[in-house]
Amino acid sequence: MEAGTSDLTRGTHPSDDRIKLNVGGKLFETTLSTVRSGGPDSLLSALSSRAIDDPNPVFIDRDPEIFSVLLSLLRTNTLPSTARRFSKQELADEALYYGIDAQFKAATSPPPLDGIDASIVATIRPASEGLPSTFTAAADGSVWIAHGGQISNFDWNLGHASTIRTHLDEIDSISRVWPEIAAVGSGSNAGLHFYDFSNGGNVGSVHWTDPSDPRIFKARVKAITGSENSIFAAFDCPHRENCILEVDKTRLQIASQFARQSGNQAKHMTPETLTWVPEIGVLVGSAVTAGAFGYAGYIRLWDPRSGEVVWETNEPGAGRSSRFGDSFACVGVDVEGLTLFKLCSQSGDLAMADMRHLGDDPWVYLKEKNPSLVNIDGVTSSVIHCYKRQVFVGREGDLEVWSRLGEMKNGVEGESEEAEGLYRRNFVDKKENSEKGIIKKIEGGGNRLFISREEVEGIEVWESSHSSGLISVL
Fold first, then answer.
1. Per the database record, which ranges form the Potassium channel tetramerisation-type BTB domain (predicted)?
2. What is the DSSP secondary structure assignment for residue 99, as one 8-state letter?
């Protein structure tokens, strides 16, 4: 509670469980247990350990109105309605000063991501060159956005933290190596490059070379992903020779090379996507091309320890598809569920395959039982992203989610006996959202979904709208 001056000028008796604070000239009185609830490393907890016979209130030269909000947060673990008077960044900065940023983050973070209830809550735009070329999200809900030759860092609070300028003309692929280090590649500049956000500098570069083959030069990076100890990057040369390099994350040096191929045919194209699956220790790569005769491409699983392919499918023509002529237009990997997904180019159907039981034809085609949601024939531009056991699909400008029936909040509980019925499809966006532009990339981070669209500035931030027990008032 707040108190008048007369209440706060009395000395503190050893039996009292109270502390008196003067914040920016405004006087407060609260309990020791409240100020210590911020944790032993917080500023308020440290101040609470001062000598008990000091008659003067502790003085803190900060904004008293924001302190009142944060004090309420410590008492109730939620933010009061008065928090609306301040920006989220103002509150976050003060919470960091007092050392209670963890409590503030818990109170303001979005609820668990449920694609059915997700909606756009913000659009984040870099200060310059607002058309993003690519981006990558982190587990805490922060995101790094590449625009031109720059990378802008937006923290978990979606506040702009920093921007670094690279030597590249354009950044087309990006991955987090460490919390402060980004691995980036460009279609117009050779090599894989590492930049440190803490100082904005280049801390290393890796190039694909082969002294025995003079054709291997100016190799560019097409896709990047990482494991606990390694970074994997797909390189290609101007004459289409390509391979995957494994880079040691600690030394930022090449550890091995595998998956070299000519690139002259669809089944030898450079991988456009790479995904590491830690549970089974394989690297998944895929490539898709569209031509006059339709779509063609491959999905391939490598064991980086041996460099060998452990499973692959080529469409069309490999025999590993029960729908010849209905080749996939895009591919996604559910790392948690150990499942591959593909979107068929002719029918628009979504198919899944269990990565633990891959065979000649592992695909199960998901059935849509709702007649109002029947697939639109054909696919012209599509994206698949698997996140938190949900499959997000962008078709042109439309965004949909496929959720497991046993995990749907409003669906029928329990697993279906038929694999085709394991997932239920729902549209995520509204008509006005789908008209904004073609979805270019989807990526999940924390309890958020980030989406970029062709020729549209900024990155859309999607969050679930339902309450998870902690109500944000910001």
1. 19-103
2. T
Tell me if domain 18-108 and domain 118-406+417-464 are identical in fold: no
CATH class of the structural domain 118-406+417-464: mainly beta
H-state helical runs in 263-399 = none
Q: Classify 465 as helix, strand or coil.
A: coil
Per-residue pLDDT at 13: 38
Tokens encoding 390: 């949900």
Domain locations along the chain: 18-108, 118-406+417-464
User: Tokens 């609830």 sit at which residue?
Assistant: 37
- Both tokens assigned to 357: 């039981």
DSSP category for residue 185 = E
**How does pLDDT run across 289-343, given as a tens digit for each residue?**
987 778 899 999 999 999 999 999 998 865 555 677 788 999 999 999 999 999 9
What values do phi and psi take at 28, rounded to 5? -130, 150
Cβ-contact 172, 189 below 8 angstroms: no
Closest CA to 459 of 231, 137, 16, 57: 137
Q: Please name the fold of domain 18-108.
A: Potassium Channel Kv1.1; Chain A (3.30.710)
For the entire predicted model, the pTM comes to 0.85
Strand partners, 444: 449
Sheet with 160-165, side-by-side order of all strands: 134-137, 143-147, 150-154, 160-165
Please check whether residue 246 is in contact with residue 230, taking contact to mean a CB–CB distance below 8 angstroms: yes
- Between CA 176 and CA 279 the distance in angstroms is 20
Query: What are the backbone angles phi and psi of residue 470, rounded to the nearest 5°?
Result: -110, 120
Q: Summarize the chain as % helix, strand, coil (round to 5).
A: 15, 40, 45
